[in-house]
Amino acid sequence: MEGIAIIGMAGRFPGADDVAALWRNVLAGQVAARPLSEQQLRDAGVDPARIADPAYVRVAYGPQDIDRFDAGFFGFTPREAETMDPQHRLLLECCQQALDDGGHAPAQFDGLIGVYAGVGTPAYMIRNLLPEPGLIDAIGTLQFSIGNEKSFAATKVSFKLGLQGPSVNVDTACSTSLVAVHQACQSLLSFECDMALAGGVSLNVPVDEGYQFHEGGIVASDGLCRPFDHRSQGTVKGAGAGIVLLKRLDDAIADGDRVYAVIKGSAVNNDGAQKVGFTAASVDGQAAVIAQALGVSGVPADSIGYVEAHGTGTQLGDPVEIAALSEAYRATTARTQYCALGALKANIGHLDIAAGVAGLIKAAKAVEQGVLPPATHFEAPNPAIDFPSSPFYVPTQATPWPASFDARRAAVSSFGIGGTNAHVILEQAPLPAPPPAPAPVQVHPAHGTPTARSQLLVASAKSAAALADTVEALATALADGGVDIADAAFTLQAGRSHHRFRCAVACADGASAADALRREMARAGREVHSKKRRVVFMFPGQGAQHAGMCRGLYEHERVFRQTLDECADLLRPELDCDVRDILFADDDPRLKQTRYTQSALFCVEYALACQLQAWGIQPDLLIGHSLGEYVAACVSGVLGLEDAIKVVARRGALLDALAPGGMLVVPLSEAALQQTLADGGEATAGCVAAVVNAPTLCVAAGPVEALERLRDRLAPRTECHLLPASHAFHSPMMDPALSAFGDVMRGVRLLAPRIPLVSNVTGRLLAPEEATSAAYWVRHLREPVRFADGMDTVLDGGAAVLIEVGPGVTLTTLARQQPGIDAHVVCSSLRHPRDASSDHAALMAGLAQAWMAGVEIDWRAFNQARRGRRVGLPGVAFERRRHWIAAPGQIMPAEVLPPALAATAAAPSGVLPRDEMERTVAEVWQAQFGIARIYVDQDFFELGGHSLLAARILVALEERTGVRLTIADLFGAPTVAGLANRLLLAQVDGADDALLARLLAEIEGAPEPLAG
């Protein structure tokens, strides 16, 4: 058998909310028995006569808070959640947690994911729901069945998590979950799926309930299970859930998965009629399935170091199990007492449906950690078991796995009433390959010391409270530095589903990551905009350049480096030098010369735009600032790269040959600046308003001496400063170059933009006839840059994420000064020269801001050259709330919400119904959704609506109003207000004009017409 890797595990157990807590309890020998007081039992609805019975055992083994569930996370309405079997709910949660633990998000996984699972008797349905008068009629028979029947448990997981592999409900009584694991392995080996979730859930309802002891039965009289011990009296009833995520071993290794253990072989059989009764155990049947699993695995029995037994702790069952194990092992070995034996039921009771997978999880942890766990409660052997002549012994303390074994191997048994037996052989995971070598740093000869690669950590949830919990758990896990930060980043990017509430940071190590995550969470506004924001690329112009810009990107990002290399090769004939020598030098004077500056900036900005696009960040709109418009034109397809390189280089050379000039930043409106220039007379002659950056921020251009006089003239009113510009761009001092530049533009091919582009000349979208006209580009060289008008055009198009694609924060700063910018998100992508961080850190920080604003990143492309490994990190936190219908006689304590949830629940968030029809619709919705208050603008689908619910709502509305609407009506107007309007309009069909006028007035809020 090819190995099957266990790459993810999750569960809820008595006394342990997760696998880590379970393993700690096992090592400590803790028992999860909860003594129950008389009051607890009365509140649970237990008959007082039973409580008073001396044979009633007042002990429970079960997980806490099974009445709570994150309905919204899985897209259920509160009504659906409270009428659903809590076993189905727990199965959903554990499957999501197992995927998170394994570092896989279904949406980012190429293969098929199967589900093999079983759930126990639907006790909640029997004890809580069926006695509720009118409940089935209220929610509908089909919905009631979907919510509670075993048949829908696995397929519900597949539907809610978007899994398209086989989805199979398994039911073989106590062996269900281990049989599910076996079937999942077979499905993987036959390539029916590429990953599989396997396990089961069993819950007692109510969870705070004891059990009745019967002499000669299988349950213990004192509430303690003592497998293999001379005091054993029987098992104890437990409840819980366990799920494992499985993948073919070769695939797991290739995908960089963490592997807990490897399933080397498994087998399933049935006792048939070779036993005394249907519920009895069979030595022959158990021995056969153990021998078969050993044969399939291809490992000798004397290489097994630990057996996780079925171990019910009954006087008859335990000796039968040891006899069967001994018979199977004696076929290949005569060694005695070399193999440790244990049974999880001593710690957490008999989990019934989930017992087998719980034992598998325990054994997998033992194999992974190299520890033989202690057998709780074991004092002396059951006299019916001859341990000294068997291969087995019972350890009473946790001990290291003996070094005498070549490999750590364990076996797990699970036997079901009715005779279906399952056995699984585990082996330790192969030694992990050495960490992948980081992508080689590409250093250009002009480089200084290479810079470190920064990492981008992302976290998300479906609510603000859940995000806070998710981020805090992640920060805690990273703070001690035990997780490689690059692997953590990869796991969070490629191994998580990404939700509406987001937090992201750039960091270099675990400690800084923890601090950064907590700081970022302290800021407001973590929710992604409900409607997709447009992405706008902004390209800065001359003045943004600085020594060493983009060095870190060239070292670490392949697409950026390849594109920059291509640009440098195309530029060499134009510049007679390698632009990379200029870019990467610590101080090259050529970077201050227009001829070289503009070409260098173009290369950096174009390469950065290509890198962002390679990561799936596609712009919806482009805007440049002066020179930056040529980058925008190239990205939009107006200019091909070779032509763009030629145009920019020759434009720079023409401008460099002009008489020097200067540019002065003036914090005035365009009108005020022009008036000041007019008032200056000869003193400011030759100066013009060359750039309008914001409503009260302009740049004047002209002779340096005249600009200095303008600065002095304005000094009493406002502070101005000269830019480090070599020439008076966008002024009459450009005129000598216009004719030659027109010739340059007429010599290249100009096309209509494929991506909308905002013009600096007009401030409007660049029209195709402008883009393809050489005259336009001549005007662009000479006329003022109307960036403020362009930003008006950008912002008028709706919510946007504006990304400055180039060095520094010039356009980021300018964008934040525009009216109405608060409705948008602005972020930079490369560092400012005074910023101590690296270019790569700045880019990752910019990506973090963009992702939090809803810009989606293609994580597969992002990690194409990163070769990360999946590591264990906390998954998404659930925002659990009570969804529970009490059984007759059951008293539920008042629900106490955590402060974050209480604040969320109390906050008003909409408009209440305003008229009788809206109140009618809202009341029907509230009854069907199970929500106490619904606002008129809340969306049917966002509340968890679906076609079955729509049909019930329409029937209820017809009963209330006499109007029959269709599902298309509801889907076309999916709010209370919209549906109320549809009902009112339907009522006017055939009505007289006066009634029609009154109804329209009610709908539209208009005054009724005067009579007469």
TrEMBL record:
Q: Which domain of life is it from?
A: Bacteria
Membrane spanning segments where? none
Q: Which UniProt keywords apply?
A: Acyltransferase, Fatty acid metabolism, Lipid metabolism, Multifunctional enzyme, Phosphopantetheine, Phosphoprotein, Transferase
Q: Which CDD domains match?
A: PKS (cd00833)
InterPro entries tied to this protein: AB_hydrolase_fold, Ac_transferase_dom_sf, ACP-like_sf, Acyl_transferase_dom, Acyl_Trfase/lysoPLipase, Ketoacyl_synth_AS, Ketoacyl_synth_C, Ketoacyl_synth_N
**Pfam families listed in its UniProt record:** Acyl_transf_1 (PF00698), KAsynt_C_assoc (PF16197), ketoacyl-synt (PF00109), Ketoacyl-synt_C (PF02801), PP-binding (PF00550)
Q: What PROSITE patterns does the database record attribute to this sequence?
A: CARRIER, KS3_1, KS3_2, PHOSPHOPANTETHEINE
Domain spans labelled Carrier: 912-987
A molecular function (GO) held by this record is:
fatty acid synthase activity
SMART domains in the record: PKS_AT (SM00827), PKS_KS (SM00825), PKS_PP (SM00823)
Q: In which pathway does it act?
A: Lipid metabolism; fatty acid biosynthesis
Residue limits of the Ketosynthase family 3 (KS3) domain? 1-428
Biological processes annotated in GO: fatty acid biosynthetic process
Q: What is this protein called?
A: Acyltransferase domain-containing protein
Organism this protein belongs to: Stenotrophomonas maltophilia (Pseudomonas maltophilia)
Show the taxonomic lineage. Answer: Bacteria, Pseudomonadati, Pseudomonadota, Gammaproteobacteria, Lysobacterales
